[in-house]
Every structure is written in C-alpha cells, then in structure tokens.
Amino acid sequence: MSVQVQSATDPGLTLSKDRCEPGSVNIPLCKWPKTTQSTSVDPDAVATKIVDAINAALQNEDTKSIAQLFLEDGYWRDHLGLSWELHTIKGKDKLAGFFADNGCPLTTIAIDKTTAYRSPQLGAFDGTGDVKGIQFFFNFTSKVGTGQGVARLAERDGQWKIFTFFTTLREIAGHEENTGPRRPKGVEHGGKLNRKNWQERRRDEIDFKDQDPTVIIIGKCQINSFRILIGY
Q1: Range of the domain at 114
Q2: What is the DSSP letter of 145?
Q3: Is residue 15 part of a domain?
Q4: Distance between CA atoms of 156 and 160, rounded to whole angstroms?
Q5: 201 CB burial (10 A radius; 0-12, 13-18, 19+)
Q6: SS3 209
C-alpha cells in the first residue's frame, strides 16, 4: 500500500483557513482605520457633535443621515436594539439599506459620563497602540425600551466618522426588572388601616388573589412521564 503525502506548498491543496464547510462562512478580518493625526482634539466636543447629529436624524426619521455618519467600512453591531434578531451590519450603504427595509426604533441617545472611562476619551483601538481614535459609552431609548452602547470614532480626511457602533437592549418598557428603587417594599410604616405585612402580601401574590398569572402551563403528561422514569 502506498501513501501519498501532499505538501502544504502543493498548489492543488486547499488549506483549512481557505476551506469553507457547507452552511458556514469564513469571517473576514477587520481592517483598522488610520490613526488620528489630530493632537489637540476635544473628545467630548467631537462625540457631542456626532450624538447631536444622530438625535436630529432620529427626530426627523432621517435614517439616511445616520448612515452617512459612518465610515465606508464602518460597523453597527446590535443585540436586540434594532430588531428581535442579532445583527452585524458592515458599511454605510448596507446600513442605509437595513434602515430602509426595517426602520430605526431608536428615539434618543445620550452620552454616558458617569465615569471617566465611559466618557469620551482619546485612546488606542488596537492592542499595540498604533491606531488611536475616540471612544465613548452611551444610553439610548427606543420604541420598545432602553439600552446601552459604545461607539468608536475614527478621523478620515479631517472628519470624524463612526468606525464601530454597538447597541444592546437592557430593559423592555413596562416590564422593567424589580431591582433598586423598583424593589417591592418589605414594610410600610404609618397609620394605614387594614394594611398587610410582607408575608401576607406575598401569600396573596402566590395565590393570585388580586391579579391573574402572566403564564399558565397546561398539561400533566410530562409529570407522569417523569414519575415513570424515577419509579414513583
């Protein structure tokens, strides 16, 4: 029996990095933009100008203007902020096409200045510090809820454009998580007649005395099958 061994330099051999399995795609590598040449840029002023332009476009439902704020090869990565699916949209032309087909549910965005790290700042995008631009975090409201995001701006031909823009939905309006100031009160002080303590109110919630359950699960076959499996 003879065994034929192909060399990695064989022109007839397809390398694994170039071979695409059926149903999958090879992810193209991102190309970094050119580093900014500005030495005295005001990150806050640049970020504010971009955010103001986005808000003006959202108010006028002018999604084409939003797409024009991106680099030709810019990215918008979205986790349920634009639709109920995950998206990575590359290029302002494809972004304009997406908005034309689906619209944009965002209503306003605001720069997050709660910490110095989240505020607009000039820094490196890559691991070696060769590509510098402006990064800032932001909060947004949409027609379905609220969310957060982060933007990176790159300078090209003397103009600042969006290189990457990430949005993620955090809460759905009317179904906010009961945390922080929205937590249920454990005790109520004061002269309130017929008031109930926490245990009594919790018992009423479990019994659905004053409200209907959000979800009703109907069926018992699953339980019977489980009992058979465990020999109950």
Answers
A1: 43-172
A2: E
A3: no
A4: 6
A5: middle
A6: coil
Please give the average pLDDT of every successive group of 10 residues along the chain, which has 232 residues. Answer: 53 70 73 84 96 97 95 95 94 94 96 97 89 96 97 93 97 86 73 79 86 73 58 55
How far is 207 from 203, CA to CA, in rounded Å?
A: 6
Question: Looking at the domain assignment, is residue 53 inside a domain?
Answer: yes
Residue 192 counted as domain residue: no
Q: How far apart are CA 118 and CA 150, in angstroms?
A: 9
Pure H helices in the chain: 43-59, 63-68, 92-102, 198-206, 221-230
- What letter would DSSP give residue 16? G
What is the count of structural domains for the chain?
A: 1
- Spatial contact of 73 and 164, defined as CB atoms under 8 Å apart: no
Number of alpha helices (DSSP H) and beta strands (DSSP E) in the chain: 5, 7
Residue 28 lies in a domain: no
Q: What's the Rg (C-alpha) of the chain? A: 27
CATH code, domain carrying 93: 3.10.450.50
* Concatenated DSSP letters of 129-142: S-SEEEEEEEEEEE
Rounded to two decimals, the pTM is: 0.72
Q: 71 in helix, strand or coil?
A: strand
Adjacent-strand bridge partners of 133 = 123
Interatomic CA distance for residues 146 and 158, integer angstroms: 33
SS3 152: strand
In terms of Cα–Cα distance, which of 70, 54, 154 is closest to 104? 54
d(CA 49, CA 42): 11
